[in-house]
Write a structure and sequence with these properties.
binds L-tyrosinamide; three-stranded antiparallel beta sheet; 3 helices; about 110 residues; elongated; about 20% strand; alpha+beta; about 40% helix
Amino acid sequence: MMADDDDQDADGDTSTLTKTKPKTDKPPLYKVMLLNDDYTPMEFVVHVLERFFGLSHAQAFEIMLTVHKKGLAVVGVFSFEVAETKVAQVMDFARRHQHPLQCTMEKE
Ligand code: TYC
C-alpha cells in the first residue's frame, strides 16, 4: 500500500506536485543601499540621508562616511514598495542636482 503523506500522485510520481505556499508568510524585506562615487559632495549625501531616510545629522554623517570609506552601506530596510519609492526619490533628487550618486535595493 502506497504511503499517503508523500506528495505522490496516482502514478507514484513525486516530481509533478507543487506545494502551495502558506499565505501567512511574512512579506520579503529589501535593503536600500547607497554607493560611493568620487564626485557627489559629502554634504549632499548627508542631506539626502536626512531628507529621505529621516536620519539625524549625526546618523546621516556616520552612514555617509561608511559609504565613502567602504564603497557602500545599507541605509534602511523596507517593504518592496517603500524601498522602490526611496530609491526613485534619491535617484531623481541626485539627477536633478547633476550628481552621480547611486542608490539601489536588494532583497534581504
Ligand atoms: N566620495 C564622495 C566624496 O569624496 C562622498 C560620497 C559619500 C559620495 C557617499 C557618495 O554615497 C556617497 N566627495
